[in-house]
Specification:
Length: 461
């Protein structure tokens, strides 16, 4: 079972930097200078500009024109229609190519017009932020880093740039670099709930619950938020159960377990089994998680106390593998199935950035576990398909048997490597529909139809 983890402040980059708008008119001067005007008026031969910081008076003959804040939204007296791209670089939708050209033009203006360098530098930082936000949203993290690093070189203490850098490093699994950025950022902005939340996220992923809790609680005190409150309560619940657990390290795993109820031989057997399967899945999924995977082994009752999972849940993955197998004397076949099932979730989630839908996650995990659709189950699914008047509804409802059957069909028809291509596309930011079309040249709806017909042919003829 997989549960999408709380992403904390990771998506704040999209909210903060992805929706930049210009609310002030832009005054263009003959010397290349640009001035943002909250309001303005002509008085005889002078232009009087009002800003939050005060008033600026400019000789009228030095003004080239005044661009309105919203392109196409009407012209103020003295303005000229169809403003240049740089005048609207902070408003409206632009493609990556548009933003790249805007950034290049602003860089040239910074060199050519020294008197307007401060204003143009601010504009360049703004455009770079938008470029980074677009790249982050589409999971082009290396491109996001390039834009953010340039922006930081121009505005080293900017809160949103620092936050974006840390979030992007974390998305890449570069915890050390993220920590370095956050350590500097929190000195500049010690009361930032967003930065504190990110720091808590970092500690939580590194199995430092005390530090994570302290950071989240401070962030919550500064800005109460129900989502963060739920995460704090979840961590407190986990710590009440896991606080005394021992910890063992392997190359690709960090294992936490109840030392009083978990036999040391079982601890070693779990790590050896997971390390052996790690490389099998890495080859199969063409992906290697960038950070050690945390595995927490609970006694049965403590598993449900910590996770609040239903009694029939055999394990779950929420960014960490959690399994109730503590107390066993040896690693049984059933325990191996639970572990490999949840490990498959970790690979699918990591490769897609936690964007894979539940049916795809569970279908793949069951297949990796070694389950196959039995004859009776296939016949029941075939009858369910035949009984639908509206076949377009087929495949829309999740069940574990239908998820496994559909994934089996896709793999048998296209090969497992093609399913990996779907995951790869999702990892680049594509939704599931687009990913299927890119990888298979057929829509998901078409696959559902092919699957239903194949069930009929196999089980009802």
């Amino acid at each position: 079972m997989t549960v999408a983890p709380a992403t904390g402040a990771l998506m704040l980059l999209l909210l903060a930097a992805g929706e930049v708008s210009a609310l002030a008119d832009t005054v263009r001067l003959r010397n290349g200078g640009l001035i943002e005007a909250d309001s303005w008026r002509y008085q005889d031969d002078l232009l009087v500009v009002r800003q939050k910081g005060g008033t600026i008076v400019i000789p009228r003959h030095e003004v080239v024109r005044i661009d309105p804040s919203r392109p196409g939204g009407g012209s103020a007296p003295g303005s000229v229609a169809a403003p240049e791209m740089t005048a609207v670089a902070e408003a409206g939708p632009f493609s990556d190519g548009d933003l790249t050209r805007v950034a290049g033009e602003i860089r040239r203006r910074i060199q050519d017009y020294p008197l307007a360098r401060a204003e143009n530098t601010r504009r360049l930082v703004n455009v770079l932020s938008r470029m980074a936000a677009a790249a982050f949203r589409e999971r082009r993290f290396d491109e996001a880093l390039t834009s953010l690093r340039e922006a930081q070189s121009l505005a080293p203490h900017d809160h949103d740039i620092q936050e974006g850098l840390a979030a992007t490093h974390m998305a890449l699994g570069q915890d050390r670099q993220a920590r370095a950025v956050l350590d500097r950022a929190i000195l500049d902005h010690p009361e930032s709930p967003d930065l504190l939340t990110l720091i808590g996220d970092l500690h939580y992923g590194q199995e430092q619950p005390g530090e994570a809790l302290a950071a989240w609680q401070k962030a919550y005190a500064l800005r109460p938020d129900p989502v963060l409150q739920a995460r704090i309560q979840k961590l407190e619940r986990e710590e009440a159960v896991e606080g005394h657990y021992r910890r063992s390290e392997a190359v690709h795993f960090t294992l936490r377990y109840d030392g009083e109820r978990t036999d040391p031989d079982l601890e070693m057997a779990i790590l050896e089994y997971l390390e052996g399967e790690f490389w099998n899945l890495a080859r199969r999924f063409d992906y290697e998680p960038p950070q050690p995977i945390v595995v927490i082994v609970y006694p049965q009752r403590q598993f449900h106390e910590a996770t609040l999972a239903q009694a029939n849940v055999a394990g779950l993955y929420d960014g960490k593998i959690r399994v109730p197998i503590g107390g066993l004397r040896r690693l049984s076949d059933e325990a191996r199935k639970v572990l490999i099932h949840e490990l498959a979730h970790a690979f699918v989630a990591g490769k897609t950035g936690f964007t894979a839908p539940r049916w795809l996650q569970e279908g793949i995990a069951q297949m990796v576990e070694g389950l196959t659709t039995q004859e009776g189950t296939g016949e029941a699914l075939a009858r369910a398909y035949r009984g639908l008047d509206d076949k377009s509804r087929w495949g829309k409802e999740f069940t574990y048997p239908s998820a496994l059957s559909f994934v089996e069909f896709v793999v048998n028809r296209e090969g497992f490597y093609r399913l990996v291509d779907v995951l790869e596309a999702m990892g680049r930011g594509a939704d599931i529909e687009t990913a299927f079309r890119e990888a298979t040249r057929s829509s998901l709806a078409e696959f559902h139809e092919f699957w239903g017909r194949s069930l009929e042919l196999r089980h009802l003829h």
